[in-house]
Amino acid sequence: MIDPSDLIDLDGLLTDGERAVRDGVREFVDTEIRPNIAGWYDRAEFPLELVPRLAELGLLGMHIEGYGCPGRSSVEYGLAALELEAGDSGLRTFVSVQGSLAMSAIAKHGTEEQKNEWLPAMAAGSVLGCFGLTEPAGGSDPGSMLTFAKKDGDGWILNGSKRWIGLASVAQVAIIWAMTDDGVRGFLVPTDTRGFTATPIAQKLSMRASIQCDVELTDLRLPGTALLPGAKGLRGPFECLNEARYGIIWGAMGAARDSYLAALDYSKERLQFGKPLAGYQLTQLKLVDMALEINKGILLALQLGRLKDAGAVQPHQISMGKLNNCREAIAICREARAMLGGNGITLDHSPLRHANNLESVRTYEGTDEIHTLILGNHITGISAFR
What we know:
Elements: H1 16-33, H2 37-43, H3 51-56, H4 74-87, H5 89-109, H6 112-123, E1 129-132, E2 148-152, E3 155-166, E4 173-180, E5 183-190, E6 196-200, E7 212-222, E8 227-232, H7 235-269, E9 271-272, E10 275-276, H8 281-309, H9 315-339, H10 351-361, H11 368-380
Parallel strand pairs: 1-4
Antiparallel strand pairs: 2-3, 3-7, 4-5, 5-8, 6-7, 9-10
């Protein structure tokens, strides 16, 4: 069967194993997400009942080696992210928060004891994690964080606030980044610790089938063993953020592809002035422009995935992928919504839901402006952040 979203045989660039991973996730999305996502989105409900299935599919900590984790390649993880976000950004975000942020922080910066304690249960989905970096007044400037961890004998006392923390109200463990007298450090915080409070953020217009929270840390006491010893300074959380940004590069193209296919199908069926919308030149122009950007975006994601698997990907390359693919994806979703006319504003169709979600995806893990400046710094050698 011809794939109308693959104009250049992208499929031929994948191995049999990579296609098998993609096809398995695509089937899961088709059978368990698509029939239900409109209701979840409308009710602002995240389907926690899907977590065991996500674990069974090997999607939690997918790229991490050992400790009960699947140990799959970066390209396989990217293809899974693309298919999940074709269902909804909220589902891909869950996998990203759990694996690319919380589990990666432990895998990259934790002790052997911490890895053995947390990673197997998180890969199995029996323990959920969250990643507390962003603050109410911090946003794109985590170096200005106000959350502070004070040494107290052999332990620590944490005070501060975090905002937009995915899964915090349902997680069992939080990775909290705090300023100390020795710079920014990371801490493993069981969420049942006295002084930890997570409150879901309500009345969202985006990422409605997902959980984001405000977190308050009030005289929260931790033992010395809670410190992630391998993370010192902002490089610690940034290494985790680049894992999440990589998944977004693929995921955004999933939302774009789904919106494009929705517009294509609709334009073939919708009659105007006696013939299908697809038979008009302006419609074909829009469809062609969408398909071109989707094919280019997936090529970019695949190249970065191959570089990542070779251990050669650079931070500015991740920024290029995140900036380009989010920017193009949201334009595609908005154009697809317009092609659906008035029907496009209902949850009977996916493009506006995807476009709304991408307003968040385009913002988190670095805004367009931040990634532009990262690339500008790389190109010119001059930092323009301040």
